[in-house]
Amino acid sequence: MTVSTVVAQHVRRTSLAKRHPGILMGSLGVLALLLTFYGLKVGATAVSLGDVLRALVGDTSTQASQIVVQFQLPRVLLCWLVGTALAVSGAVMQGVIRNPLAAPDIIGVTKGAGFAGMLLLLAIPGVSAVAVVPAAFIGGVLAAALVYLLAYRRGATPVRIALVGIAVSAAFEAGIRFLLVRNPLDVSAALIWLTGSLFGRSMTSVLEILPWVLVLVPLIVVWSRKLDVLGLGDDLAAGLGEPVEKTRRLLLFFAVALAAAAVAVAGTIGFVGLIAPHMARRVFGGKHLASIPAAALFGVLLMLIADMLGRGLAPPLEIPAGLVTAVVGGPYFLYLLVKTGK
Predict the structure, then answer these.
(1) How far apart are CA 185 and CA 17, in angstroms?
(2) pTM for the complete prediction?
């Protein structure tokens, strides 16, 4: 029996995805492009679709088209990159840990990055936002390393990683609250970043996260078959010739790097890494070669909608995208808890 045969026996595909996978995937892509185009005109300043078209072809002769290029375009590009990074990171974590509730913000990566970024903002008031990026990235990586080390007992089983991750996430959350209480007069900038907002982001932020997405996402797609094999369980995966511990460590590193890069440029945006992979599996089944690209598209859609709602609900007041995803993600997380508990 070949590896593909064994994997195929454990992977279910929905009938709709089996009949028309290309059409389904293409529809998601077209919807994301339409929302991207419309999102370029949403905001406190009135921008027409004509101004958007002028800006996209390089004509910045009007003030509205300049607003599109300077302020709106970086935001929608970040929605694509951050949504993809968080969703693919969540898909990998759920595949490696074999738990549909696993996500960067559930097992400590997001909170670790948030704690490190906030620590820097409070330690050096007025520090450039550019400096927060490496701090948050290091925080996320250290949090993931801490989870792995604490969970390691002759190997890191998925259950131990999930439980230790929740505990570490709670510890970093407590640390964040402690910093907020100790520094009540200096927390404004940190709070804006912690809530997860794309306000004020520029093309610099886009360029900071772009290499991570361009390198790691294709690499993860190429390794999607390894995720399928790990999903069979450690013993069966090892029996099929997969170096389980080595593969798990490497895939987790890829997932952590993606999540940390997203948090570094956009703050702690929660639940995208949980919801998007789950929606992808519901539509495209459990085979990661299809579900990972689909999760990326769902993540993009979630980020575009959250950012547009945040900009358009009560202008000029702007609601952070992280608050919008939390409003949707909280009930969805409870739904998953109830469903998985049955």
Answers:
(1) 53
(2) 0.85
| Residues 212-255: tens digit of each pLDDT | 999 999 999 999 888 888 888 888 888 888 888 889 889 988 99
CA distance 280 to 47: 33
Whether the Cβ atoms of residue 89 and residue 255 lie closer than 8 Å to each other:
yes
DSSP 71: I
Phi, psi of 196 (to 5 degrees): 80, 85
Cβ count near 17 (within 10 Å): 22
Sequential DSSP letters for 142-168: HHHHHHHHHH-SSS--HHHHHHHHHHH
Please state, in angstroms and rounded to a whole number, the distance separating the CA atoms of residues 234 and 158.
Answer: 9
- Contact (Cβ atoms closer than 8 angstroms) between residue 150 and residue 299: no
How many helices (H) and strands (E) in the chain? Answer: 17, 0
Neighbours of 305 (CB within 10 A): 18
* Residue 201: both structure tokens together: 């982001």
